[in-house]
Amino acid sequence: MGLTTHHRARVYAVHPQNPQPRELDQLVEILRTDGVIIYPTDTLYGLGCSIESPKAIARIARIKGLKPREARFSFICERLGQVAEYARMSDAMYSVLRHNLPGPFTMILPGLSKCGESFMSPRKTVGIRIPNHAIPLALVRLLGCPILTSSLPLDAEEPEYGQFPELMAERWGTQVDAVIDGGQGELTPSTVVDCTQDEIRVIRQGKGVLAPE
Q: Which of 168, 150, 145 is nearest to 158 (CA)?
């Protein structure tokens, strides 16, 4: 979607437990047409787009101040069966994911070629989330493919811009196509878990506490 300097994103009020179909349909249409949105998760609010939209991915890289060819984003899946389309999982890793997802975790897994260069690290790994939040899961289901997830570029001295959707619209409204108001956001990121080796390692402790398989 082409934006001008006069455009300001609409704020969509969406129920966090029971998202309204009308609003979801409108948001999915934005995602299908190279749109960028701000949306809630079970941790931080994030920037998102379809992982099948190079134009939108490049826009998010610019918002984050990253070079598109160097950016490595994570993405949200709806279910474990969808994760298997983008990453390799041993039986042991599948068990770990099944016991902890949906939840506030970013799982680092060996990636498959379907992921694309915007998501595959030099180590050929990908970061995947299945958040415990109805809005992003519904968006992925209706869109038919995962959505990119990247936290908002926040200043620690102004945390309120990561909590209140009306302030997010004020700050980033000319750079995105929609802001979803799913209630006040949190300020604790996901726990990042390295699932690429036999021994699972927590490499960033965030909101989630990893349960044993």
A: 168
